[in-house]
Amino acid sequence: MSTKRQQTVLGFVLAGLILAGGLSEAAAEPVETWSDVSVRSSDAAMLALIDQAFAQSRTFRAMADTVRALDGIVYIEAGHCGHGVRACLVHVMPAGKRRMLRVKVDTRKAAIDLMASIGHELRHTIEVLGDRSVKSGFDLFFFYTREASMRTSGTFETHAAIAAGDAVRKELREHARRLRKE
């Protein structure tokens, strides 16, 4: 589909949503937040947690900015990963000049732990976005067979993602302590 046609279709879709009440007038205008481009969710509660982590953790903020700089779009959604893990990067696909990545997160945990898990997975998305050849689930699997260690559960892990999740958790806890002292 040509760029002109895509823009026309997008315009009609947005107009239809506005007329149908699917978007408020304010939502149709450009939003000046980090999440409008790089990290998204269809779930309002998940978006609130992402916004909170962005506001309270410099590590999380830096990772979200890196995702944007690498032309990535990350969708964070509630879901189950299996293999005994609470969050996982499940897919990558091309989207024009960008790549879209899908992350699932088990929401049955405390807010700080959930935000740390999202931060952990954001680090994985940066790892993937750093390799332009990763454009499919197949590529994703082989990327991690080269770049990560495999756990006995059959999942892949990197030290950088573990450190990122730990840093986000620590910064969120420090922020909470500062608020209690005030």
How would you describe what is shown here?
The protein is α/β, with parallel strands linked by helices. Helix content is 54%, strand content 16%. It has seven helices and six strands, in the order H-H-E-H-H-E-E-E-H-H-E-E-H. The strands form two sheets. A four-stranded mixed beta sheet has the order 1-2-4-3. Helix 3 (44-56) packs across helix 4, helix 4 runs parallel beside helix 5 and helix 5 runs antiparallel to helix 7. The chain is globular, with a radius of gyration of 18 Å. The N and C termini lie far apart (55 Å). 30% of the residues are buried. The model is unreliable at 1-36 (pLDDT under 50).
What is the strand and helix layout of this fold?
Layout: H1 3-19, H2 25-28, E1 39-40, H3 44-56, H4 58-69, E2 72-78, E3 87-95, E4 98-105, H5 111-129, H6 137-147, E5 149-150, E6 156-157, H7 159-181
Parallel strand pairs: 1-2, 2-4
Antiparallel strand pairs: 3-4, 5-6
Helix pairs in contact: 3-4, 3-5, 4-5, 5-7
Keywords, please?
182 residues; single chain; alpha/beta; 4-stranded mixed beta sheet; 54% helix; disordered N terminus
> Strand arrangement, largest sheet?
1-2-4-3
* Mean pLDDT across all amino acids: 83
Strand content: 15-25%
Given as residue ranges, the uncertain stretches (5+ residues, pLDDT < 50) are 1-36
Q: Please tally the β strands and state the result.
A: 6
Backbone CA Rg = 18 Å
The helix/strand series, from N terminus to C terminus, equals HHEHHEEEHHEEH
**How does the major sheet shape up?**
4 strands, mixed
Query: What class do helices, strands and sheet pairing give?
Result: alpha/beta
Shape: globular
- SS summary, helix count: 7
Measured distance between first and last alpha carbons: 55 Å
Determine the fraction of residues in helical runs and give it as a percent range.
40-55%
